[in-house]
Each structure stands twice: as structure tokens, then as C-alpha cells.
Fold this sequence. Notes:
The structure is a single chain. The protein is of the alpha/beta class. It has helices at 2-9, 44-58, 91-99, 111-122, 148-160, 176-182, 187-190, 200-206, 212-215, 217-224, 241-256, 289-297, 308-319, 347-359, 375-381, 400-409, 432-446, 479-487, 498-509, 535-547, 562-568, 588-596; strands at 30-37, 68-75, 79-83, 135-141, 163-170, 191-194, 228-235, 266-273, 277-281, 334-340, 362-369, 387-390, 418-425, 457-463, 467-471, 521-528, 550-557, 575-578. The strands form three sheets. A six-stranded mixed β-sheet has the order 3-2-1-4-5-6, sandwiched between helices. It is globular, with a radius of gyration of 26 Å. The two termini are 30 Å apart. Residues 1-25, 205-211 and 216-226 have low confidence and may be disordered.
Amino acid sequence: MKLGILLAFIFYSGSVNAAETEESSCGTEGDVVFLLDNSGSVSKSDFKLMLGFVKDVVKKFIVSKTKVQVGLETFETGVQTEFKLGTHGNTQDVLDAVDKVSYVGGGGTNTGDALKHLRTTSFSTAFGHRAGVPKLAIVVTDGVSSYKNRTKEQARLAHNSGITVMAVGVGKSTDQVELQDIASDPDSKYLFHIDAFVGLKMIESTLASATCTKLQGLASDCAEKGAADIVFLLDSSGSVGVENFDLMKNFTKSIVDEFAIGPNAVQFGIVIFSTPVIGAFKLNQYSDREELKKAIDGIEFKDGETHTGKALEYLREHTFTRQEGYRSNPNIPKVAIVITDGHSTHKDKTKEQAQKLKEQDVEIYSIGVGNDVDEEELGNMASNKNVFRVDTFSALEHLRPLLLRQVCKAKNTCLGKSDVVFLLDSSCSVGKENFQKLKHFVSDVTYNLYIDKNGIQMGVESYECKVHTNFELNRFHNKVQMQSAINNIEYKPGGTNTGEAIKHMWTRSFSSDYGNRDNVKKIGIVITDGDSKSKATTFYEAHKARESGVTMVAIGVGDMDVEELRGIANGTDYLYTTKSYDTLRDLTKKMTALACET
Length: 598
């Protein structure tokens, strides 16, 4: 999972000194290219902040020919290569090269051509890209591109070529939809927005969880998310031919290479179909990757008609059974990947069997090759529009990163449906710096949540003497917009009127006017570092909140009065303490799990 580990380290820390060891740096393999907006809307001082941002990120890498390589491009009307991947073989040389980059400050914002240059040139072997090494691009811009449609198309082509793109939008002149087009999916990981260039330093820690972990690659990403039973259904009909069938087998092996294989990890099965339908081997037959790949090599091409429906039926009645090694644990996903180049012999049977598989929670991906496939049939087979098209069998390899991304991303889905309100202490004892850490914590909690009107809704209130509604439960059903709103919450110091804040929470924040849904779990999370103005009022309002059906969670930071936390929380299971705002992040998984409980 090479790409993954790098993404967790990019933006993790602002600076590193020479005394720091390699253990504190990102020493995985990866090719990283920065793409910086140098157009007329960017001032010289802001451009300097961008370069400082690049240097702070680079300091977290072990830069070498065998570890992380860094390239830098700038763009306005044209695209300028400041230095190529691999030009500089150590961190200090890269930092010195960044210092030499010149400010242009003129021209338009030709993001589309910049993305094309990124795909066709920056990540070419001629420019130093190493074959098989993950590709990561970081685009920083402050405006709308000159040609939106071209930007969207070039971003799509970049994603399809295996480049993971992180988009950072700065200021109010950016286009949120365009940033979403530029960023790789999901937006919650790869799209960020800040109000001004000075905020670049702030998002370094916000993006920590999304960086060096990504360069460790899609393989570990899936492996971390646990087990899966994956079956390939390979078309072996007469229209395919031996040569193309071999290309399908090679593609299948390239997918196998990306996963941890074994009885407690990912199991693979293969069904080939033409006039006969044959199960090549059982799901649990191979727990060693090399043995599995040898078995794939040994599968023979079978001529005949395209009996896709029979293959899907075989999958349901034989492959996904305990006798064939299928694991009945509901937390282990069942995945079927169908590759075909033509119409099925019995279209109705194909549709019927696909529907039956979907009813058994099998996630189906359909891949059509060539011009003779039936688009409607591919759509009928696939779950959730998981349809892919390529022109030739040799082009299957280009689908690998996109298919992996789709297969992996749904394996750790939060299934909860709840209304969650955070109540953040903004009193004088907190301070501006700690309040910033408090916002980062809330943003991190949202990271793994399914933010949607049919999933988890979240609101945020802050308080001192007064209570401030930052956004209501039904304000955002988009994770990226929500995280941007959290980032923009202002620190307003004052007293610690926790009682009035809790009253506002249970009477207003959890009202239908604010988006509270009937028959949905209500969770109120109070985070404070000091004694409230009136302990009696706090206890009374917390009691009223619990009485109204709100599950009250109390998090105390520092030397808090535990008695007061007990008076707020539903019980000791909902009471947490942490030494400082720096250690709040240790509670991220617990808060996420609480919101996700079904």
C-alpha cells in the first residue's frame, strides 16, 4: 500500500530539523509532483507561502532515487517545469530548488493544460517517473480555471491513468464543483479548502491522515480494511480468443498482487464462461499469492457461446457457498467482477441472475471490452453503476487503479444513522491555538462518517457566555463542505456557560427546525476544559437533555472536575478525559464508532 502511507505524511508537520531521524519521515516509495497556481490572481507574498508549504511537506519525506521523488510544476496561461522527478536526489537539494522558483504573477488559470502536462509529461519515464511506483499530484489554486470543461476532462484522464490528485482550493474565488472534479475520489480524503494562503500551514496536520498512508498503495488500503471474497468471471467465448483471454488472466493477476491473500484476508475465485461454465478453483484453495497466480496461468481458454447468465447462476449456487470456501460473516464483502466482450446468449437470464446475486449482497462490477458489448446489459448486471468500458483487452491494465479504488473504498463503510451535535468550549481558558486543535478533532471524526440526509447528520455549536450555532444538523449533506465549514469556525473567547449551551442543544439544535429526524439516535458531545459558570444549571440542563432522548457524551480536557463530567454524561461509558488538546485525536475512533452504531 505504497500510495497510502505517503498520503498520511504529506501535510503532517510544518517543519523538521536535521536532527530528526528517518523514523519520523516518510520512507516509502512514491513519485510526488506539486502543481502550483502562478496566475495573475496570486500575489507574490501568497506565492511565497505556497513555496513554504511545499518545503514543509517535502521535509517529511526521505527523498532519494529509491524512496520519494519530488517534482514541481507551476502554471498560469502556460505550464512551467521548475524541476523534474528525480532531478534532486536528497531532501536538501529539493528545498534549495524550491527556493529558486520564480514568481510570475500574470496570465490566466489554465488548469486543464496543466493537468494534461502532468499526465503526459510530468509522470513520464522521460521526466523521471519510475514504472510501478505510485503517482501523487498536489494541485494548489486560488481561482476558477479558464476552461472548465477542459479541466474536468483532463482531471478524469489523470485519474484514469492512475494519478491520485489532491486538490487544495484557496479563497472565495474557487469553484467547489471544479475542485471536486480535480480531486480523486473520495473528496473527503483528497479535497481541501481554506480561506487564505496563510491557512496552508494549518491544513498540514488536517491532511496528516490522508498522506503517507496512501503511497503505501491500494493493496494495503484494502488489506487494512479486512477480508473479502472476490470472484472474477472471465468470458471465454469464441469472440475473445486465446490471446485476449491471456490478457484477461494477466489483468486478474495484477489485481491479485494488490491484496493480502489468506483465510483471514482476501480470497479469490475464478469462473470462466462460454458454452460450459467452469469454476477454475475454490475461494479458499490458495492462501499463497504466487501459488494463486500460477493457478491463474494454468486456466485454459474454452471456446463457445457467451453464457453470462449461467455464469452468474453458477456463482450464486456454487462459488459463494461454504463448500467452495465462502465465508458467511456479514462483515466480509462478496465481490464479483465480470469481464466480457459481447452480448450474453440469454439476456433475460443474465439480468435475473444478477438481481438474485445483488439480493444476496454481492457487489457486482461489470467490465465491457470492445464495441460489441451491450451497455444496457452491463448496467443491469452492475451494482451501484459499477460499470467500466475499455476499447481493447490490452487496455484493461489502465482500469486497474480505478477498479481497485472502487472495490476498496466500500469495505469500511459506516452503517450508522444518527444526528450528532458537537458542543465546543470557546472560553478564554481554551485559547485560539487549542481551539484550532479542537476543530481538527471534530473534522477528523467526520472523516470516516457517511454524511448524508439518510446517514449521519452533524451540527456544531460553540459557546462561552453566549452560544453560537456554527451550522445546523441539516445544513450539510456533503463531507467536504462540512469540513470546510468546521475549518472556518471562529474562536470567540468568554466565560464557560456550559449549562446554557446544553439547554440550547436539547431545545434548539435537536429540534425539527434544525434538522433533527424522528426515530433517529441523538448524540450530544460536549468538549470542555474548565468548570462551568453554574454547576447546578449544567447538571439540570444535562438531565433535561438525557430525558429528551439525547445520549450525552462528556469529554474533559486537562485537569477537569470529573464530578461535573459525570453530571453531563449518560454514564461512565460516555465520559472521557484526555490530558491535553494534542491528545484529543486519541478519541477519534471512539467518537466515530459511537456515531456509527446501528
